[in-house]
Design a protein that fits this description.
Strand content: 5-15%
Structural class: alpha/beta
Radius of gyration: 20 Å
Distance between the termini: 53 Å
Number of domains: 1
Shape: globular
């Protein structure tokens, strides 16, 4: 029986990863907040690892990107979770004798945007811009410093989507389904995203690889699309007609500044392209989902969720 220890298993990615690995015959171990007592304690993590008897740790726990991510005063809070917990777990993993430590980082550890015709590679300089990206990079540096004493692998995804997704991706999909006119017909950008099933498959291959893989890998769907292309793909999956009208990116970004939604609008007007060539080559990965098929599975989940909600509403 193959055994892995997963932190953050109750989250969006964690739930999908658990389900994927169970189907592949893995025995999954984790620990709840109540059972762990102190997530910043090496001893607490060591006790959990000894009980689990796992040779592989997959670390997903993080304080994720939120509204306060650009507030410098929030840096210590992000650092306490994203670096402090990682440090304790890593030390406990070394003490116990864990063989492989897989860490889910973020492309935000590198930066926020690229030119439309260029991509972030693993050789790109790191210039994180907010508390989340800064502390994700700090956690990466901590892990890399310990790579001589434990096999480590760091994955940097962009936005992750799929059944159960929340946030701005879900808001955009809901808007497309409702037929709300959207002002992105003239936006010429390119954005990389990652289907959660492509991510869980990649993590499985990383766990099973016999190669020494002490390095960072970027992971994204093969396709980078403009916002208008994404809306068309969503509309097709939802059985809707996309409703787009033209508005320049400059005007949209000025409006975003005025409404206090600058970051949200920039994600819809600017580019963030991620190269996945290294991970596909060195881990011999063929991603199972294209972006359109990934959107289709997300649309099917959304449709089912809405039908379930409708059944719960009592008739008058």
């Amino acid at each position: 029986m193959k055994k892995v220890f997963i932190t953050g298993m109750t989250g969006f990615v964690g739930q999908h990863l658990k389900n994927h690995l169970l189907k592949k015959g893995y025995e999954i171990s984790s620990v709840s907040k109540g059972d762990l007592c102190d997530p910043y304690s090496v001893e607490s993590w060591r006790t959990a690892l000894e009980k689990a008897e796992c040779a592989t740790v997959i670390h997903l726990i993080a304080k994720t990107h939120a509204a306060d991510a650009r507030d410098p005063s929030a840096l210590s809070t992000y650092r306490r979770v994203n670096v402090g917990i990682t440090r304790a777990l890593l030390e406990a993993s070394k003490d116990y004798g864990v063989k492989r430590f897989v860490y889910l980082s973020s492309i935000k550890a590198v930066g926020e945007e690229t030119p439309i015709d260029q991509s972030f590679t693993e050789e790109s300089p790191c210039n994180p811009e907010d508390c989340y990206g800064i502390t994700k990079r700090e956690a990466e540096e901590l892990i890399l410093k310990n790579s001589r004493s434990i096999e480590t692998l760091i994955l940097r995804p962009p936005l992750i989507y799929g059944p159960g997704v929340k946030g701005n991706f879900l808001k955009l999909m809901n808007a497309v389904q409702k037929g709300i006119p959207l002002p992105f017909a003239k936006v010429k950008n390119a954005r990389s995203m990652l289907n959660v099933y492509n991510l869980t498959y990649t993590i499985q291959i990383a766990v099973e690889s016999h190669a020494s893989i002490d390095r960072i890998f970027h992971i994204a769907d093969n396709e980078a699309v403009s916002t208008s292309e994404l809306i068309h793909i969503m509309a097709l999956a939802l059985g809707k007609t996309p409703r787009l009208f033209p508005c320049s990116s400059i005007v949209l970004e000025k409006l975003g500044n005025f409404l206090g939604k600058s970051d949200t609008i920039k994600k819809l007007t600017r580019s963030l392209v991620v190269s996945n060539e290294r991970v596909k080559k060195l881990l011999s990965i063929t991603l199972p989902y294209t972006l359109p098929t990934g959107i289709e599975t997300t649309a099917s989940w959304l449709w089912g969720l809405q039908k379930q909600t409708e059944r719960k509403i009592p008739e008058e």
